[in-house]
Specification:
Elements (H helix, E strand, L loop, with lengths): L1 H27 L17 H10 L1
C-alpha cells in the first residue's frame, strides 16, 4: 500500500512540475515565439554569435 501511495504521489508531483514549467514558458512567450526576454534570453543571428566568438 505504501509503495502504491508513493508511486501515485510521485506521479502527481511530476505532473505538477511539468504544468508549472509550461505555465512559466507561456508567461514569457505567450505567442509561442522566441523573443528577447531581458535577463533570460536574446534573439541573435548566427553572424552575431560568430562575431562575439572572434572578439572573446
Amino acid at each position: 500500500m505504501d509503495t502504491a501511495r508513493d508511486t501515485a504521489i510521485s506521479a502527481i508531483k511530476s505532473t505538477l512540475y511539468v504544468k508549472a514549467q509550461v505555465t512559466w514558458l507561456q508567461t514569457r512567450f505567450p505567442e509561442a515565439v522566441f523573443v528577447d526576454v531581458p535577463g533570460l534570453c536574446k534573439v541573435v543571428t548566427r553572424d552575431e554569435i560568430v562575431q562575439h566568438e572572434v572578439i572573446h
